[in-house]
Specification:
It is a single chain. Helix 6 packs antiparallel against helix 7, helix 8 packs antiparallel against helix 11 and helix 9 packs antiparallel against helix 11. The chain has 2 domains: about 350 residues, Outer membrane efflux proteins (OEP) (Up-down Bundle); about 110 residues, no CATH class. It is elongated, with a radius of gyration of 41 Å. The protein contains 13 helices and 8 strands. By secondary structure, the chain is an alpha+beta fold. The relative contact order is 0.14. Strand 4 and strand 5 form a beta hairpin. The N terminus is likely disordered. It comes from Spectribacter hydrogenoxidans.
């Protein structure tokens, strides 16, 4: 095999020896199935359909989904440092001079034309190596000398031996950019989980508000019937006229509660429409028909330790904090290398051919023995090196700070999840407790009405019993909603809400950073 062919093959292998692959940021957010909502008319939605609409068209989510793509562009910029580049140059020149010969006193006019061209490849490798492969040619033409052409194939290597050497050091910026891409995925997941929780919470609050309106309307009708009954008894002379004021006051009080309840329902409907952003008219005037049911049977008691373990592995916040720690540890790799002096090795290897034409010159390159080789070392070290030492100290302190923050975040998450478990258990217990209270209040009202029928009670006592029954009915409805809210909060805090809702979003698993050293 010819030596120039061997050189070309070696260079080809070097140019392919990059260790940094591309980055594909993931911003996919998708519910189990899409929802086609009507442009006009009422919206009939289950809670799952409301969540799906929000994931399809919520404007805040559409903006948030751009962040992983934006972060990916920074990773692409860092990856581009290791991309090869092509360069080329060409020049042409002319020189005219006079030369006088002493023995003849003759002036000779000398004309010289030069033509030069070069083309080649350059690449910076993660090992800290700059490689340049070039092919150049020069041609000299003169009226007083024969034409001379030269062609050269050359290889130049610049290798950092201390500062800037090593794959780990040179990939710090790229790996930090990739860490930022992963962090943006966890940020997106956290935003999606919060959005889903808000939509579900608003949906159930609106459903609860509608249920409260139904209970208040029924109670108002009962109070109005009580007024009619009191009037009939007053006309019959069985009760005093003073009894009428108490039942009328109760009617007015329930109208007040109904006004407040309807206003709260309208506010919640407008909030839900803003979150789901349906097609067409999405303001508060559009009607929403809720298809999900309020009442349901609580499941098994949640185990705090299981939810805490899940949260410490799945919560987007703690995974993002782990990435911040990893990013700071990468910075220590860079600053530790920056403490070293700069020592660079330069090696130039070339093969040249000469003739009177370019074609012949290139043939001489392939068959001739005109090689050139040179090497050099360059050393530099700033006295004191205070800037590098300060940067290294700052990087190490930032690692310590990130470690402390990560440990503290773990404790906060554990406390949040434990409190959420306590709240879920309390809300589940309240469902049974309010059921018992409601049954007793119904019996109390029946007994009070029976005593009123035989003249042993007053309208005021009956109104108070009705008021207590109304409060028990509202508490019963609130207990179911509180349990729903408690489960939503628990699943959001333990990081499992999106998995339980079968929603596809990036950042599902803890970060996997195999290239990271354990600790420094």
């Amino acid at each position: 095999m010819r030596r120039s062919t061997f050189l070309t093959g070696l260079l080809g292998s070097l140019f392919l020896a990059t260790t940094a692959g591309g980055v594909e940021p993931d911003n996919t957010v998708a519910p189990p199935e899409t929802v086609d909502a009507p442009v006009t008319g009422p919206l009939e939605l289950s809670v799952e359909e409301a969540v799906a609409l929000a994931l399809q068209a919520n404007p805040e989510l559409l903006a948030e989904r751009q962040n992983p793509i934006i972060a990916g562009t920074f990773a692409d910029v860092e990856r581009a440092r290791f991309d090869p580049s092509v360069f080329a140059s060409a020049s042409i020149g002319a020189e005219v001079s006079q030369q006088q010969f002493a023995n003849t006193n003759e002036n000779l006019l000398i004309e010289r034309d030069t033509k030069s061209a070069a083309v080649g490849l350059r690449q910076y490798l993660p090992t800290g190596t700059d490689i340049e492969l070039s092919v150049s040619q020069d041609k000299f033409e003169s009226n007083r000398a024969p034409t001379q052409a030269g062609a050269r194939v050359g290889l130049t290597l610049t290798q950092a031996l201390l500062r800037g050497a090593g794959i780990g050091t040179n990939l710090v910026a790229l790996r930090q950019a990739r860490t930022d891409v992963a962090a943006s995925a966890y940020q997106l997941r956290g935003f999606v989980a919060t959005l889903v929780a808000e939509v579900e919470r608003t949906y159930w609050q609106y459903l609860g508000a509608r249920e409260r309106i139904r209970i208040l309307e029924s109670s108002l009708e009962l109070a109005q019937r009580q007024v009619e009954q009191a009037r009939q008894r007053i006309d019959a002379g069985t009760v005093a006229r003073t009894e009428l004021a108490a039942v009328k006051a109760e009617v007015a009080r329930r109208r007040q509660a109904l006004i407040d309840g309807r206003a709260e329902a309208e506010r919640l409907k407008a909030s839900l429409l803003r979150q789901i952003n349906p097609p067409g008219r999405g303001d508060g005037e559009r009607e929403i028909r809720l298809a999900s049911e309020v009442e349901f049977t609580p499941g098994e008691d949640p185990v705090a330790s299981e939810h805490i373990d899940l949260a410490l592995a799945r919560r987007p916040e703690i995974n993002e904090a782990r990435l911040l720690l990893a990013r700071n540890e990468l910075q220590v790799v860079a600053t530790r290398n920056g403490l070293l002096p700069r020592l660079d090795l330069f090696v130039t290897l070339g093969q040249t051919g000469f003739s009177d034409s370019f074609g012949e010159a290139y043939s001489q390159v392939d068959s001739g023995d005109t090689y050139d080789l040179s090497a050099a070392l360059e050393f530099e070290y700033p006295l004191g090196n205070r800037a590098a030492e300060a940067e290294d100290l700052r990087a190490r302190r930032e690692v310590a700070q990130a470690e402390a923050s990560l440990a503290n975040l773990g404790r906060l998450i554990s406390a949040e999840v434990r409190n959420a478990v306590i709240e879920a258990r309390r809300a589940a217990a309240q469902i049974d407790a309010t059921a018992a209270t409601l049954a007793l209040q119904e019996e109390t009202l029946e007994a009070e009405q029976a005593r009123f029928e035989v003249g042993r009670s007053t309208s005021l006592l009956v109104a108070q019993a009705q008021r207590d029954l109304l409060a028990a009915q509202l508490d019963r409805a609130d207990a179911f909603l509180a349990y729903r809210q408690a489960l939503i909060d628990l699943y959001r805090l333990d990081g499992s809400l999106l998995i339980r809702r079968l929603i596809d979003a990036p950042g599902e698993k803890p970060p996997d950073l195999p290239w990271l050293d354990s600790r420094f």
